[in-house]
Design a protein that fits this description.
- With 512 residues, the chain is mostly helical.
- 74% of the residues lie in helices and 2% in strands.
- It has a 3-stranded antiparallel sheet with strand order 1-3-2.
- Strand 2 and strand 3 form a beta hairpin.
- The protein is globular, with a radius of gyration of 23 Å.
C-alpha cells in the first residue's frame, strides 16, 4: 500500500500558488479552536486559588490553606485529589473524545469536527458558570474536555492541509498562537474577577465566548481539498484548491492529492496500518512529541501559576499578576516562532528551546531550594521574586517558540493521508493522557518532591532534546503529501521505510 506521490528531490516538489487572503482568514478562523484550549488552561489555576470558589466547592482545601499551625508544609497547602480532579477531568474526557473525533474528522470533514467541538465547549462553559454543586462542575468539565478533544484533533490537520508548504509552519502555529492568547485572556479575567464574590462564575462562564465564535465561524469555512477528495467531492475540491492557491492551474498539486487519496482508500484499518514498520517514524513522533511536550513541566505553570506563585510567597493579587505577566510572555514568544519557524526550520527551534528550558528549570529549582528549603518555610524579597519570575518567564518563552507550537505542527504535517487521522488522534490522545496525569498528580508531586519537582522536569527536557538531535529530520518546506522522502533519507528511519516498493513513472516521480 502506497504512501502518496513522492518526488526524487530531497526537499520535495514546490507547487505553484500564492498566499491568498482567503487562506489567511480561513486559517485564522479555524485557529480559534485553540482559544478554547488556551482559555481553559489559563482559567483553572486562577479559579482554584479564589477563596469564594474554594469555600463553596472545596472547603477542605480552604481550611488547609488557612492553617497557620505549621503542621502542613507550604508545598502541600493545595494538595487535594478532588481539587486536582476538577482540573484533570477535562483532559481525561478529551482523551476519550479524540478517538471519536478521529472518525468524525475523516468521515464528515474537518469543519464538522470543529463545530462539534465548539458546541461541546459552549455547553460545558455554561454549566460551569451556573454550577451549584460539585457534580454540575465536573459534568461541565467533562463536556469542555469533549470540546477540546474534537478541536485539538481537527484544527491542526485543517491548518496543515489548507496552508501552502512554504508558510505551513506559520499558519499551523496560529493554533498555538490562539492557545497563548486564550491563556493570557484567562489570566487577565481572573485578575479582575478575583476580588468579586462570584468572580469565579464570570471566569468560567466567559469560556462560552470563544466557543460561540468557533461555532459561528465554522459555518463560513470551506473544508480542505484533501478532506473533500477523501469524501468523493473532487469537483468541489479542485475549486477550493484554486481558491486557496489563488491560481487556476493547480492540476499538478490536485493530481497528487487525488493519487494520495486513492492510495489512502486502499487502507481498511488506518489504526492497524500506522503500526506497520513503514509508518514507524510517524507513530514514534506522534507518540513521543506530545509525551515529551507534557513532561517539559509547562502545565505546572499554565494550570497552577497563581497557586504556584502563592505557594512561593507571592500575595494573592501578586500571584495573579505574575500569571498575567508569564501569559503575556507566552503570547509574544509564540509570535516569534510564527515569524521564524519557516525560515530556520523545526529542528533548531526544538533544540534551542530545550536548552533554554533546561537551564531555567535548574535555576528556578535552585532558587526555591535556597530560599524555602524542604519545608517551604522562608521569605522572598521583592528583587528575588522578580528574579524568580524572570527565569520562569524565560522558561515559558522557550516553550512558546519551540515545544509548544511544534508539538502540534510536526505531528500534523508528517503523516500521509492514509494514516493522518489516526496519527493526529494518537497525538491528541497521548497529549491529553499525560496532560491529565500531570494535572492530577502535580500538587501531590509538589508536596512530596518540593523544589526537586523542577529538577525532575529538567531531566526529561534533557532527554527529549537529545532525542530530537539524534532522530528528528528537518521537515521544513516539504509538502505534506511528499513527507516520506524525509524518512527515506534519514540515517535511522530509512531502515523502516526502505522496504516500500518504489516504481518510477514517466514523469520521474517516485511512487511509494
Amino acid at each position: 500500500m502506497a504512501g502518496g506521490v513522492l518526488v526524487a528531490s530531497k526537499n520535495g516538489r514546490q507547487y505553484e500558488g500564492m498566499v491568498t487572503m482567503f487562506v489567511l482568514v480561513t486559517c485564522l478562523v479555524a485557529a480559534m479552536g485553540g482559544l478554547l484550549f488556551g482559555y481553559d488552561l489559563g482559567i483553572t489555576g486562577g479559579v482554584t486559588s479564589m477563596e469564594p470558589f474554594l469555600v463553596k466547592f472545596f472547603p477542605g482545601v480552604y481550611k488547609q490553606m488557612k492553617d497557620e499551625s505549621g503542621h502542613e508544609s507550604m508545598y502541600c497547602k493545595f494538595d487535594n485529589e478532588l481539587l486536582t480532579l476538577f482540573t484533570s477531568s477535562l483532559y481525561l474526557a478529551a482523551l476519550i473524545a479524540s478517538f471519536f473525533a478521529s472518525t468524525t474528522t475523516r468521515m464528515l470533514g474537518r469543519k464538522a469536527s470543529m463545530f462539534t467541538g465548539g458546541l461541546f465547549f459552549l455547553t460545558g462553559a455554561l454549566l460551569n458558570g451556573f454550577a451549584v454543586n460539585i457534580e454540575m462542575l465536573i459534568i461541565g468539565r467533562i463536556l469542555l474536555g469533549f470540546g477540546v478533544g474534537y478541536c485539538n484533533q481537527s484544527v491542526p490537520v485543517y491548518l496543515s492541509e489548507m496552508a501552502p508548504a512554504k508558510i505551513r509552519g506559520a499558519l499551523n502555529m496560529g493554533f498555538q498562537m490562539m492557545i497563548t492568547i486564550g491563556i493570557l485572556g484567562a489570566n487577565i479575567i481572573n485578575y479582575f474577577t478575583s476580588n468579586l464574590e462570584s468572580g469565579w462564575r464570570i471566569s468560567l462562564g466567559v469560556g462560552a465566548v470563544p466557543a460561540i465564535l468557533l461555532c459561528i465561524g465554522s459555518f463560513f469555512l470551506g473544508d480542505t481539498p484533501n478532506s473533500m477528495i477523501e469524501r468523493g467531492q473532487k469537483e468541489g475540491a479542485k475549486k477550493m484548491l484554486q481558491k486557496i492557491r489563488g491560481i487556476d492551474n493547480v492540476d499538478e498539486e490536485f493530481q497528487d492529492l487525488i493519487d494520495a487519496s486513492e492510495e489512502a482508500k486502499k487502507v481498511e484499518h488506518p489504526w492497524k496500518n500506522i503500526t506497520q514498520s513503514r509508518y514507524r517514524p510517524q507513530l514514534t513522533f506522534c507518540s513521543l512529541i506530545p509525551f515529551f511536550q507534557q513532561l517539559t513541566g509547562i502545565n505546572v505553570i499554565m494550570f497552577y501559576a497563581p497557586v504556584l506563585f502563592k505557594t512561593l510567597g507571592f500575595g494573592s493579587d501578586a500571584s495573579l499578576m505574575s500569571a498575567v505577566i508569564s501569559g503575556g510572555v507566552n503570547v509574544v514568544a509564540t509570535f516569534v516562532s510564527i515569524f521564524i519557524v519557516d525560515k530556520f526550520g523545526r529542528k533548531i527551534l526544538f533544540l534551542q528551546g530545550g536548552v533554554q528550558m533546561f537551564i531555567c528549570q535548574i535555576v528556578v529549582g535552585s532558587m526555591i531550594a535556597a530560599k524555602f528549603g524542604v519545608n517551604g518555610e522562608g521569605s522572598i524579597k521583592a528583587y528575588e521574586a522578580n528574579r524568580l519570575l524572570f527565569f520562569i518567564c524565560a522558561y515559558v518563552a522557550a516553550f512558546a517558540w519551540s515545544w509548544g507550537p511544534l508539538g502540534w505542527l510536526v505531528p500534523s504535517e508528517i503523516c500521509s493521508l492514509e494514516v493522518r487521522s489516526a496519527g493526529q488522534a494518537t497525538n491528541v490522545a497521548v497529549n491529553m493522557l499525560f496532560t491529565f496525569v500531570i494535572a492530577q498528580v502535580f500538587l501531590a508531586m509538589l508536596c512530596h518532591l518540593k523544589f526537586g519537582l523542577f529538577f525532575f522536569f529538567a531531566g526529561f527536557v534533557l532527554i527529549m532534546t537529545v532525542f530530537i538531535f539524534l532522530f528528528f529530520p528537518e521537515t521544513n518546506n516539504v509538502p505534506i503529501e511528499e513527507m516520506n522522502t524525509v524518512w527515506k533519507s534519514h540515517w535511522f528511519w530509512t531502515k523502516f521505510v526502505s522496504d516500500v516498493d518504489v516504481d518510477v513513472d514517466h514523469d520521474h516521480k517516485l511512487v511509494a
